[in-house]
Amino acid sequence: MRTNLHRHLTDPLTGVRNLGILAHVDAGKTTITERILYVTGATYKRGEVHNGTTVTDFDSQERDRGITIFAAAVSCAWDDHRINLIDTPGHVDFSDEVERSLRVLDGAIAVFDGVAGVEPQSESVWRQADRYGVPRIAFVNKLDRAGADLDTAVASIRGRLRVTPLVVQLPIGQEDGFTGVVDLLRMRSLVWADDRGTFREGPVPDALREEAHRRRRLLEEAVAELHPIALEEFCTESAISAQTLAVALRDLTRTGEGVVVLCGSAYRNRGIEPLLDAVVAYLPSPLDVPPVRGTQGGTVQERAADPAAPFAALVFKVNSTATGRLTYLRVYSGTIERGDAVLDAGARRTERIGRILRVQADRHTEVDRAVAGDIVAVVGLKTARTGATLCAPAAPLVLEPPAVADPVVSMAVEVRRSTDTDRFASALARLVEEDPSLVVRTDPETGQTVLSGMGELHLEVAVEKIRRAHGLEVGVGRPQVAYRETVVRGVSGLLYRHVKQDGGAGQFAHVVLDVEPLDDAGDDGGTAGFVFRSTVVGGRVPREYVRAVEAGCRDALAEGPLGGHPVTGLRVTLTDGATHPKDSSEMAFQAAGRFALREALRASAMVLLEPLVEVTVTVPDDAVGGVLGDLAARRGRVLGSTARAGTVVITATVPLAELFGYATRLRSRTQGRGTFTTRATGYAPVAGAVSNGTPSR
């Protein structure tokens, strides 16, 4: 261990690393976090997922299920650097938790299974990180497992993620014999003598010297292709020094042109120290990332990571505890202290900071202040929601909030005892406040309370949280998926006249619409798959009325003619219209657009869309036939299969509605040996659910 781990750190911003750990479920994220805390001296006992003793998986449901559900923040110190670390969930149902974490991080460790390589959710979280431009290094874990192979995992990184992996280590030993790594930069060996993390440094073993030199040469060539300074040295010296390589790897990591790849076995405590060294060496500090951008009064402003600048922070998580409401912040600029007044820029409400806490999962240490680059929790804010910007009242600014995905699964929930109705409503409100990807609404037809989320497990966890935290008996209905409707054959020249005269000023609007399918509707299933345009000439419909027609059309997209589902994937063209000198108004044209599009949709050929998921099923050889038959019965389409050491990995696309209860079915067909994961892939037509349209009037 480093001798300086227990100092009280007062590092400048260059000594801060804000990073997350991203991966597919069960790739080892939480175990890596536990080993980092242990190696850095932040904990004195190694937590284990299977024993329910981890620091970051502290929630009772996480320990019961053995998976990470809620993103947890911890802090530790390494080599005079402070590392603020967020352990994120790997299950697809909790991808919104990953999204909120990525919004406030400066870097990330992407973890890959040494046997499976890039798995479906690994790819999804990688794309999420791409959207936010978060620099990453990769760690290939579980190299001690049977079938683990670094080269195969690296090939999947290159092929599936379409990035350039820059492998800086060579494993010493394979599978059960994995004992250490060769550091290709400094050409040394690191060998772990036991599972407690004790290692010794030495020369490259004779048996690996030739292979190590070959791989060092490949690393130099790969870096030279991407980095001009390294290329210049490579051309003049026919080699690249360790110092130049380190600088080049740092630059390539920050630009995303290359991904540094390390390896190890977190469970056996092998490879954690070099991983921490790579975090410090290659991932950026708050000063290395571009200034945060926000808006004020319609103009874009930038705030540098400067403790002396006006205060600006983003709320990325809200958590209600027995001791009060915790609001998690990423401070981008300025400084706050206890008792300071801050402005919630979106709500235009001023609140006061009660306490500032340095977070260690479910434990907290009170601090006097927080500065730019910090990730902390504060107590005392009553109304600030996830995505809110907190700033200095004298220098308001609104930062871009994290994106929130549309729910895909819904189910009816009700409280068993009528006397608990008020407590139930309060519990639901608190649930939605903590997790914005959950939506609660009342069905206007049945009067039922409907809870919507990102998947069956997501809703199951939410309901169980209400039961445990609030002691309520909650009943649930069968989950329902979020269908969409789209146009497969539109209509042309649909004329609609909106005329209303009932005393006083009347309403008059005349519109002619063309409706057609939108070829590039996308897979979001939302109203993003909608394009409106106008080809009206001669000023027959003034510009402000054209905007009103578009607004009316967007209103009509909320409910389609097949079943009242949202409509997506269409293009509407306003081709003609007429106005009245006195009775025409924006309100009249908005109503005309709404009613005209509703009529056009009824006259069009429509199709119902259902959400699809990509399912990756891992089963024993002797259960493949039964599993394939079950997938076919669920309207699944098999994409491929791969044999791996006595098991077969099957990939298929299956309608989400057919997957409810699949976990139990799979366990029964495989005697408990089968596992599966899912990843949302978009929407597809439901067979037979097509309306032919009715003639327009």
Automatic annotation (TrEMBL):
Assigned GO CC terms: cytoplasm
Keyword GTP-binding in annotation: yes
Pfam families per record: EF-G_D2 (PF22042), EFG_C (PF00679), EFG_III (PF14492), EFG_IV (PF03764), GTP_EFTU (PF00009)
Cross-referenced InterPro entries: EF-G-like_DII (IPR053905), EFG_II (IPR041095), EFG_III (IPR009022), EFG_III/V (IPR035647), EFG_IV (IPR047872), EFG_V (IPR035649), EFG_V-like (IPR000640), G_TR_CS (IPR031157)
Tr-type G domain span: 14-287
Main location: cytoplasm
Any one GO molecular function term: GTP binding
Subcellular location: Cytoplasm
Gene3D superfamilies membership: 3.30.230.10, 3.30.70.240, Elongation Factor G (Translational Gtpase), domain 3, P-loop containing nucleotide triphosphate hydrolases, Translation factors
One of the protein's GO biological processes: ribosome disassembly
Keywords tagged on the record: Cytoplasm, Elongation factor, GTP-binding, Nucleotide-binding, Protein biosynthesis
Highest taxon listed in the record's lineage: Bacteria
Keyword Transit peptide set for record: no
Residue positions binding GTP: 23-30, 87-91, 141-144
Family annotation (PANTHER family): RIBOSOME-RELEASING FACTOR 2, MITOCHONDRIAL, TRANSLATION ELONGATION FACTOR G-RELATED
Functional summary from the UniProt entry: Catalyzes the GTP-dependent ribosomal translocation step during translation elongation. During this step, the ribosome changes from the pre-translocational (PRE) to the post-translocational (POST) state as the newly formed A-site-bound peptidyl-tRNA and P-site-bound deacylated tRNA move to the P and E sites, respectively. Catalyzes the coordinated movement of the two tRNA molecules, the mRNA and conformational changes in the ribosome.
NCBIfam families (UniProt xref): EF-G, PRK12740.1-5, small_GTP
Recorded family membership: Belongs to the TRAFAC class translation factor GTPase superfamily. Classic translation factor GTPase family. EF-G/EF-2 subfamily.
Protein name (database record): Elongation factor G
Organism: Streptosporangium sp. KD35
